Structures are given as structure tokens and as C-alpha cells.
Amino acid sequence: ARVLVLNGPNLNLLGTREPGIYGALTLADLEQRCRQHGAALGLQVECFQSNHEGALIDQIHAWGALHRQGQALGVVFNPGAYTHTSIALHDAIKGVEPLPVIEVHISNVHARESFRHHSWIAPVAAGSIIGFGPDGYLMALEALARRAAGLGT
Ligand code: DQA
């Protein structure tokens, strides 16, 4: 089953960007881990990163259509700072229901500045995994695999 790991703005800088907060792993390393972990779960993981809000919206629409056709399981999404600003991403996810989108944040946004405490994505996400570093993406893949297997209900 196909799954998209979608990363938003500035996540292409992983590895060199505030390593005290986001760690030393690069985006390429992270995506490789996702593909490997996904494969072990029987998932075919595809990866996309963009610094552009509209490009992220286009991906959500495309994967919403795939899901509707029974060709995709869901999306693991770290929207970066758009989490805290983007009604357009909120509407995009809402617009392709019931595509499951799992929100992931590497850092514990609730332990940081107050402007990171609100998420426009959380109310339209299947769930959110926050503060577990890069492992959060793997946990989100497990959540999608468990859902697909009919577990967790
Ligand atoms: C982030 C948290 C956001 O507040 C921040 O703007 C990011 C990364 C995280 O993964 O911890 O770019 O989504």
C-alpha cells in the first residue's frame, strides 16, 4: 500500500538547522529511514518536501484522489511553520476527507514558544505525533499500517 511522507517548509534544512532542536539527521536520511521502516510494515513509502504552501496543497489533493480510488493508505505530514498559519492546508485536508493525514512534529511544540502551540492541522488530522524526534515519522507509519490492518479499534 502506498503512503506519502510529506514535509513542509525549512525541513529540507534538517541536519544543519537548529540541530539542538531538530537533531543531526538530514532529510535524505529521514526519508530513507521512512522507506525502510515502511517496507518492513508492508508499505511503499513515497516522499515529498516543499517550501511552498500550494505545492503541499497539490500533494494532498493528489493523494486524496488516490485514496478515493483505493490506491493509497494515507499521508504522514509535517507542515512545519504552516501548522500554525495555514487555513489553506486545513481546508485542503478537510476537502479530501476521509484521507487519513497524520500530523508529525519533530520537536515538542508545546514546550516551545506560544506561537507554536496552536495547530490548524490538528483538528483535521487523524491524529498527531509530537516531540519524539525523527521517530515520530516511523510511529505515524505504524499508525497507518495498524489502521489498514483493522487494528486499534
Ligand atoms: C516543526 C515545528 C514547527 O513549529 C516549526 O515551524 C518547524 C518544524 C517540528 O517538526 O518540530 O518547522 O514542525
So, the CATH homologous superfamily? Dehydroquinase, class II
What gyration radius follows from the Cα positions, in whole Å?
A: 14 Å
Structural class: alpha/beta
**Total of domains:** 1
CA(first)-CA(last) distance: 20 Å
- Which class in CATH terms? Alpha Beta
CATH topology: Rossmann fold
- What is the residue-averaged pLDDT? 97
Please indicate the percent range of residues in DSSP E strands (runs of 2 or more). 15-25%
Each distinct ligand: 1,3,4-trihydroxy-5-OXO-cyclohexanecarboxylic acid
Q: How many DSSP E strands?
A: 5
Order of helices and strands: EHHEHEHEEH
Number of helices: 5
Oligomer: single chain
Give the % helix: 25-40%
Question: What form results from the Cα inertia axes?
Answer: globular
Low confidence ranges: none
Strands across the major sheet, in which order?
A: 2-1-3-4-5
**Biggest sheet details:** 5 strands, parallel
**CATH second-level architecture:** 3-Layer(aba) Sandwich
Site (Transition state stabilizer): 17
EC number: 4.2.1.10
Protein name: 3-dehydroquinate dehydratase
Keywords: Amino-acid biosynthesis, Aromatic amino acid biosynthesis, Lyase
List keywords for this structure.
153 residues, alpha/beta, Rossmann fold, five-stranded parallel beta sheet, 5 helices, 5 strands, 17% strand, globular, binds 1,3,4-trihydroxy-5-OXO-cyclohexanecarboxylic acid, aromatic amino acid biosynthesis, amino-acid biosynthesis, lyase
